[in-house]
UniProtKB/TrEMBL annotation:
Origin organism lineage: Eukaryota, Sar, Alveolata, Ciliophora, Intramacronucleata
UniProt protein name: Uncharacterized protein
Record organism: Euplotes crassus
Length: 136
């Protein structure tokens, strides 16, 4: 049996193991893995982290590279997709279709497509989060 435990700042969690049959010898073997992650709520800080840590793809259209970038990253149990138009005189328009399993697009929960339209110098952040069956 295993547990996934999220411990947020200031929280404490205790997991207790008890014997199911006190007449039998008991013992335990265990392993663990963990990570410590900063909680980011400010969109500008999230954008900065996605740009620093995310996978970057430059947009290419008709065999020409444009100064338009697409970043993808996963942290805080969310998938982040950042679109950035650094062109001075071009509008970027993209349609992205996602094949989702137990995920929803924040702000458009029923859709599987994201449409992005960016004027020169604009950025757009789209987020996919796990579906919480207890709140659906």
């Amino acid at each position: 049996k295993s547990w996934v435990v999220d411990i947020y700042p200031g929280a404490k969690i205790v997991k207790k193991l008890s014997t199911t049959d006190s007449s039998k010898k008991s013992g335990v073997k265990y392993s663990y893995a963990f990570k410590v992650e900063e909680v980011l709520n400010d969109e500008n800080l999230i954008i900065e982290k996605v740009k620093q840590k995310g996978k970057k793809k430059q947009i290419q259209y008709n065999a020409e590279n444009y100064n338009i970038n697409f970043y993808s990253s996963f942290f805080q149990k969310k998938f982040y997709f950042l679109y950035e138009n650094n062109e001075e005189d071009k509008i970027f328009e993209g349609n992205y279709k996602f094949t989702k399993t137990n995920l929803k697009i924040v702000g458009d929960e029923d859709s599987d497509t994201v449409k992005v339209v960016l004027q020169p110098g604009e950025v757009a952040l789209r987020v996919l989060v796990p579906v919480d069956p207890d709140h659906e």
